[in-house]
Amino acid sequence: MSSFLTGLENSQYLKHIRTILETSIFIAKAVEEGTSVLVHCSDGWDRTAQTCSLASIVLDPYYWTIHGFQSLIEKEWLSFGHKFTDRCRFLESIDPKEESPVFTQFLDSVWQLMRQFPCAFQFNERFLLTLHDHAYSCQYGTFIGNCEKDRLDLRLREKTYSLWGYMMNNTSDFINPMYRKEYGVDHPILRPNTSPQNIHFWRGLYNRFENGVHPRESITDTLGAKKDHIASLDDHVSLLEKRVQQLLKLLGKSEEKLVSGLQGLVSSESLYMLCELAKGCTTAKNSNGDIDRLPNDVTPNILSKGMSMRSDSESGFEDGSSQLSKSLNEDGLSPKLTPSTSYTNSLENLTVDQIDAEVDSIAIEWKSLRNVKQCSCAFPFDHFTKKYHCWRCGNVFCTRCIDRHISLPGHNTQRPVPVCKPCYKHIKHSPSVSDLQHIAQPVTHQTQYSIQ
């Protein structure tokens, strides 16, 4: 390790990164003060592209977004003629003296800014690594050629695919979970600190495949998984609350008492109690174990089968039903039935099996990303490999095993979410899905699975 650090210090590579940042900040300050700046180097396609791009990032929050950053590369690097073929040395016939990590230094400088302003950028470290990989891979035609004329002569638009299309189709892989849109409003200009202690070695790029130097789990991936999990549970709770509200409407409860009774607390035991009320049971136990007498004329034909009790620990909503029952009893809600026509029509075909399918279609607990070494297909995970959760079963998979998106019955918004192949087949061929589509209220706008 000491020899490696000595070599890094002798190369003065981090000093070069610091110099690029300082020059870019100098340009940005001059523009901010209203001074016109002319930037040029010996040819105009190396240091000019680096400093002008970074100055634009410092000055304009638009370039902090994924789409804006792609536009910046198109403008400052591709359109202005950075010699990617020569600098990356795609061909052996190219003079070795022409090879230089100019684009790599630019991405390294952007990563330094991301470290100092973690909430400013919409993209994450994986986004920069993907750009770097495909700048050298030639898998896409975006970075092939030394200028626009070369790309036109090679007819790359006809013969190759664009890297931007691939990245836009996989936007969820590149989203920074700490990104805040309002950050650009509060801080329209970045003011980075270029002191030596703030310039770090980018081990994610230069030591990517040395697993011993990386944490056991990625912070951004863990935060992203937590946000997705919370979004799934919130969507599921919204549907359960809607079902409870529909049942209570059939029982003739007022909106004011309904709000004070629910208070956002829903559980499978509460659903069981409401279903028993709807089936016309003459007695029901409240949270204190007392017997509440119900009228004998409670006989709406909305449930066709009995419901099996499910514990709160299994459903993930502990103590919700007891508080709900207590608040209902304290408010003195009357069980008298005056069913509404609209709710009756939406629930007339609803069965307990369908409610059970809605509850079982959502993973209450998601498996931790920590210590997951490989996918079920034996694909190995390293520190920078994206791990995906199935929103139905909660297990962890690779991108090949979770390439399907489908609406889950237990979600209120019915937006397509990622699921594994076995869960996709189970939901696709489930007989209750078509029935649920008939009883669900129409959705005016379906949101695709993406980060807002």
What features would you describe in this structure?
By secondary structure, the protein is mainly alpha-helical. Helix content is about 50%, strand content about 5%. The chain has helices spanning about 1-10, 15-30, 45-60, 65-80, 85, 100-115, 125-135, 150-155, 155-160, 165-170, 185, 205, 220-250, 255-260, 270-280, 310-315, 320-330, 340-345, 350-360, 420-430, 430-440, and strands at about 285, 290-295, 390, 395, 405, 415-420. The strands form 3 sheets. A two-stranded antiparallel ribbon has the order 1-2. Helix 3 (about 45-60) packs antiparallel against helix 4 and helix 13 (about 220-250) packs parallel to helix 15. The longest helix has about 30 residues, at about 220-250. The protein starts with a helix and ends in a 13-residue tail after the last helix. The model is unreliable at about 275-345 and about 435-450 (pLDDT under 50).
